[in-house]
Amino acid sequence: MGVEVLEVGRGNLDAAIGLLNEALPQVQGGENRELRSVVFYGLAAAFANKGERTKALASLEESLKAAPGNRNAIALKGE
Questions:
Q1: For residues 4-39, b (16+ Cβ closer than 10 Å) or e, as one string?
Q2: Residue 28: which pLDDT band, with cuts at 50, 70 and 90?
Q3: Spatial distance between the Cα atoms of 13 and 36, rounded to a whole number of angstroms
Q4: Residues 78, 19, 25, 47: what is their CA dihedral angle, to the nearest 10 degrees?
Q5: pLDDT in tens, 29-72
Q6: Contact in structure between 16 and 4 (CB atoms under 8 Å)
Q7: What distance in Å separates the CA atoms of residue 44 and residue 33, rounded to the nearest whole number?
Q8: Fewest 10 Å CB contacts: which of 8, 16, 20, 61?
Q9: What backbone phi and psi angles, to 5 degrees, belong to 43?
């Protein structure tokens, strides 16, 4: 995780989404729960910034499923 976050910060949301989707297969599996949560959080932030609420909420759910204590995901979701 690095370039993806920069792309979100720069407003290159489609590029960020593409990079984060490419990262997903690499973070599947039990030992990568925290990282998987971060990737889904990044997707949620990018989708939220694009105004794609349904995709943002779905990504937040996946983020919280992977790591229920992810404070950033909880804050973005508004809980």
A1: bbebbeeebbebbbebbeebeeebeeeeeeebbbbb
A2: confident
A3: 19
A4: 30
A5: 778 899 999 999 999 989 998 999 999 999 999 999 999 998 98
A6: yes
A7: 16
A8: 61
A9: -60, -45
